Amino acid sequence: MALDPISASITSLLSPAPVSVKKPEADEAAAGIFSDMLKESFETARATDASDKISSIELLSGQTDDMSGLLLDAQKAEIALNLALQIRNKVLDAYNDIIRMQV
Predict the structure, then answer these.
(1) What is the pLDDT of residues 3-59, one digit of tens each?
(2) Would you list the DSSP string of the chain?
């Protein structure tokens, strides 16, 4: 059995170990996916709200008499708005949790 001198072990301990650094591309990609999801959610809410307004204007101006379509558009707009608000609230809660973290 061969014994290594203790000085070799000490120098290997004192030499700087390679540090693994997480690549920022992965974080940027995740942030891009998340921001795309947020944009899509708010865009959907905006589009359904516009559709609801158009249906209301058409019904009020007498261009259509489809009351059920108007009610469906109103419900879709309400659900999309609630979803966007819930996503916003969750993002704000997560942000506040990160701010309150002690380092």
Answers:
(1) 555 555 545 544 555 545 455 565 666 667 878 888 888 888 899 999 999 989 988
(2) -----HHHHHHHHHSPPPPP---HHHHHHHHHHHHHHHHHHHHHHHHHHHHHHHHHHHHHHTS---HHHHHHHHHHHHHHHHHHHHHHHHHHHHHHHHHH---
**Separation CA 82–CA 88 (nearest Å):** 10
Query: CA 22, 27, 29, 32: dihedral to nearest 10 degrees?
Result: -170
- Rounded Cα distance between 96 and 88, Å, is 12
Report pLDDT for 35. 80
d(C-alpha 48, C-alpha 20), whole Å? 47
Q: Which two tokens stand for residue 91?
A: 């993002």
For residue 38, what are the contacts with CB-CB under 8 A and spacing of at least 6? Answer: 87, 91
The reported pTM is 0.60
